[in-house]
Inverse folding.
C-alpha cells in the first residue's frame, strides 16, 4: 500500500502529535494534542485536602461517562465542560469557539441549589455515586439551560420520543456550569477491565502491534453475521486493521445489556483472521443524535488512534418519531460526514445495509444485489420473538456461539421470570386466587414462586403506611420493586394488593416488563358482591364511617383498561378462575413444555 499526504495513516511529524513517543506514527488526536487531565499524586493530595470547603456535585451516570472521556482524552481537545459561549457555538455551528469541529455539546447541568453556591472562579468537587471525588471543576460561568433551543439545534426536533430530547427535558437540571477540569482519578469500573482502554493505552497497543491504518466499528448492539461480513469486508478492502469499539456507557433505553453484548463480541472475535482485529470498550453516553453523532463518533475514534470509521445506514439513529416517521434520513449521517471528512482527517467507510443472498450463501450490500436474487434478513423484533419462543436462530443470521450467549440472557418465556399482578376491590377474591395459583405453580415446579399478598405486604414491607393516595402509591411501588427483582432473576411473583390507581399500576408494569413477563389480572367482582361477602367486616365499618378512605366506599378504584384478564368471581369457583389464568399463561408461553 502506498500512503499519500491526504491519507490519514500517513506518518506525521512526531513533534506535532503531542502524544506518547511510541505512537508517533499514529494519527494525531483531534485538535493536535491528546488531552490527559489526570494530575500527579502530589497535586491530587493537595486537591483532596483543599476540597473540604468546596461545594460538591454527585455526577449522574451520563455525566460520569462524559467526565471519563474528557479526562482520558477521548473528547480531545476538550479540557472541561463547555462554557456558555462554547455550548452556543457548538449547538449552532458544530464548532468550538476556536473553530475546531465539534458537533455535540458536552455540558454539566446542576440544580439551582448547587448553582447558588457557585460563581466564576469557584471550585466544584465532582464525585461519583459513592461520593468519591473524581475531578475538580474550575468554574468559568453558569447559565440557565434553554432546553427547547438546545433540542432544536442539536437534535432538530422537540419530539420526546427522541431519547436525547427526552433526556434533556426529563432528566437534565436547569443550570449549566462550564469550566476547566483537573482529574484525580478515572471513574471506577470492575467489569471487563482488560478490555477497557484509554486512548493512550489503545494507541500504545496499536503501536506495539505495528498497526497504522485502523478502521473503527461503532456498535451498541450484538454483532450478527451481517455486521461481521461488513467489518471484514471494510478491513479487507482498505487493507486495514479492525477495531471493534462498542459503546458500553449509555446506549438507547431497551438495548441488550452490555454484559451480554461484550460476551457476544468475544464469541465473534475468533471468526476474524488472526492478528487483524482488536476489541476495546468505549465508556460513552450516546445521545442518538444521528448525523451529528456520527461525526462525534469519528472524532472520538480519531482520538483513540483510528484512521477510518465505518458509517452504516441510519448511524446512531433514534428510531421513529411520534408520527412513525424516522427522525433522520437513512444516509443523512454519511452525507454530513462527507462534508467534513477532509477537515476531520478520518476517512469515512460508508456501508449500505447488508443482506443475505440465500442461493449464494453469502452477504452483499443491498445496492449490489443481482437482479432476481433471493435475499433474507431477520429484524430485531423477529429475533426477540424467536428468542422468547425458543425458536431456531439460523446460522446464516448469527454465529451459533453468539446465539448461545443471547439465549443465556434471553431464555424462552417458559424459563423467564414473570409476575401475575392481581388488582381489585377488597373482598373481590384476589388473595384466594393468588393462593390457589401459588399452589398450582408449586405443583408444576421449575421456578421459585413468591406470594406478595396485600395483607402480608402491609404487615412486613409497609407496616408504617396508611391508605391515603400517597401511601397506597408507595405501597404499590414497593411491591412492584420486589416483584421486579424476583422476575428479573427468573422467579415468579404473585402480587395481590387492591392497587386502585392506574398510573402507579402502569409504572409497575413497565418496571417489571423490563426484566420479564407481566400479567395484570383484574379481579372484577362488583362492589355489591364484595360488600355482601364482607368477610372481614370492613365494609360495614366503612359504611358507618369507622374506617375512612375505604376503597369503593369512600375512596376511588380506577378500573384497569389494560388487564390481560378480567375475572368476575361472582359465579366462578376459585379453581375455575385460576384455570383461566393457567390457560392464559400456557397460551403465552410462560408455562408448559416450550
Ligand atoms: S392498596 O390500596 O393496594 O395499598 O391496599 P392493600 O395494600 O391491598 O391493602 C388492602 C387491605 O387492607 C385492608 N384495609 C383497607 N382496604 C382498603 N381501604 C382501606 N381504607 C382499608 N383499610 C384496611 C383490607 O383488608 C384490604 O385487604 P383485601 O385483601 O384487599 O381485602
Amino acid at each position: 500500500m502506498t500512503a499519500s499526504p491526504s491519507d490519514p495513516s500517513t506518518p506525521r511529524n512526531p513533534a506535532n502529535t503531542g502524544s506518547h513517543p511510541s505512537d508517533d506514527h499514529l494519527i494525531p488526536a483531534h485538535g493536535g494534542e491528546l488531552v490527559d487531565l489526570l494530575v500527579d499524586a502530589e497535586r491530587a493530595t493537595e486537591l483532596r485536602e483543599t476540597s473540604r470547603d468546596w461545594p460538591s456535585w454527585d455526577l449522574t451516570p451520563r455525566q460520569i461517562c462524559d467526565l471519563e472521556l474528557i479526562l482520558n482524552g477521548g473528547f480531545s481537545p476538550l479540557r472541561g465542560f463547555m462554557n456558555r459561549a462554547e455550548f452556543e457555538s457548538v449547538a449552532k455551528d458544530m464548532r468550538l469557539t476556536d473553530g475546531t469541529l465539534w458537533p455535540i455539546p458536552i455540558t454539566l447541568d446542576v440544580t439551582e441549589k448547587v448553582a447558588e453556591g457557585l460563581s466564576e472562579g469557584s471550585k466544584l468537587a465532582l464525585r461519583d455515586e459513592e461520593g468519591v471525588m473524581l475531578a475538580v471543576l474550575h468554574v468559568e460561568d453558569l447559565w440557565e439551560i434553554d432546553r427547547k433551543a438546545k433540542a432544536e439545534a442539536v437534535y432538530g426536533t422537540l419530539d420526546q420520543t427522541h431519547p436525547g430530547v427526552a433526556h434533556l427535558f426529563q432528566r437534565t437540571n436547569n443550570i449549566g456550569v462550564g469550566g476547566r477540569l483537573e482529574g484525580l482519578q478515572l471513574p471506577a469500573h470492575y467489569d471487563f477491565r482488560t478490555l477497557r482502554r484509554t486512548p493512550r493505552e489503545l494507541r500504545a497497543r496499536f503501536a506495539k502491534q505495528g498497526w497504522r491504518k485502523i478502521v473503527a466499528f461503532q456498535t451498541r448492539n450484538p454483532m450478527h453475521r451481517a455486521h461481521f461480513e461488513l467489518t471484514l469486508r471494510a478491513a479487507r478492502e482498505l487493507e486495514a486493521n479492525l477495531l471493534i469499539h462498542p459503546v458500553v456507557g449509555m446506549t438507547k433505553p431497551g438495548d441488550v445489556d452490555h454484559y451480554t453484548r461484550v460476551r457476544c463480541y468475544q464469541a465473534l472475535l475468533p471468526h476474524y483472521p488472526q492478528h487483524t482485529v482488536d476489541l476495546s470498550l468505549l465508556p460513552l453516553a450516546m445521545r442518538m443524535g444521528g448525523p451529528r453523532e456520527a461525526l462525534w463518533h469519528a472524532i472520538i475514534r480519531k482520538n483513540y488512534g483510528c484512521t477510518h470509521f465505518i458509517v452504516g445506514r441510519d448511524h446512531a439513529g433514534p428510531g421513529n418519531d411520534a408520527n412513525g416517521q424516522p427522525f433522520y434520513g437513512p444516509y443523512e449521517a454519511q452525507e454530513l460526514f462527507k462534508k467534513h471528512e477532509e477537515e476531520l482527517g478520518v476517512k469515512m467507510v460508508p456501508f449500505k445495509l447488508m443482506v443475505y443472498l440465500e442461493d449464494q450463501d453469502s452477504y452483499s450490500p443491498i445496492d449490489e444485489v443481482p437482479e432476481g436474487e433471493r435475499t433474507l434478513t431477520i429484524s430485531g423484533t423477529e429475533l426477540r420473538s424467536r428468542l422468547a419462543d425458543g425458536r431456531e436462530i439460523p446460522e446464516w443470521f448469527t454465529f451459533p456461539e453468539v446465539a448461545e450467549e443471547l439465549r443465556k440472557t434471553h431464555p424462552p418465556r417458559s424459563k423467564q421470570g414473570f409476575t401475575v399482578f392481581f388488582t381489585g376491590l377488597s373482598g373481590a377474591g384476589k388473595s384466594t386466587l393468588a393462593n390457589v395459583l401459588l399452589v398450582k405453580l408449586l405443583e408444576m415446579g421449575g421456578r421459585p414462586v413468591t406470594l406478595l399478598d396485600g395483607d402480608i405486604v402491609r404487615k412486613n414491607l409497609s407496616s408504617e403506611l396508611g391508605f391515603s393516595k400517597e401511601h397506597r402509591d408507595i405501597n404499590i411501588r414497593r411491591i412492584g420493586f420486589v416483584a421486579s427483582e424476583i422476575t428479573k432473576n427468573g422467579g415468579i411473583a404473585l402480587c395481590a394488593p387492591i392497587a386502585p390507581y392506574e398510573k402507579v399500576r402502569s409504572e409497575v408494569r413497565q418496571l417489571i416488563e423490563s426484566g420479564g413477563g407481566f400479567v395484570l389480572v383484574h379481579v372484577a367482582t362488583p362492589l355489591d358482591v364484595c360488600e355482601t361477602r364482607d368477610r372481614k367486616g370492613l365494609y360495614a365499618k366503612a359504611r358507618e364511617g369507622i374506617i375512612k378512605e375505604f376503597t369503593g366506599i369512600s375512596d376511588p378504584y380506577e378500573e384497569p383498561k389494560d388487564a390481560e384478564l378480567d375475572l368476575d368471581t361472582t359465579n366462578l369457583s376459585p379453581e375455575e378462575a385460576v384455570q383461566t389464568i393457567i390457560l392464559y399463561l400456557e397460551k403465552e408461553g410462560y408455562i408448559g413444555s416450550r
Notes: The first helix runs from residue 14 to 17. The chain has 21 helices and 19 strands. The first strand starts at residue 56 and ends at 58. The CA atoms of residues 63 and 190 lie 18 Å apart.
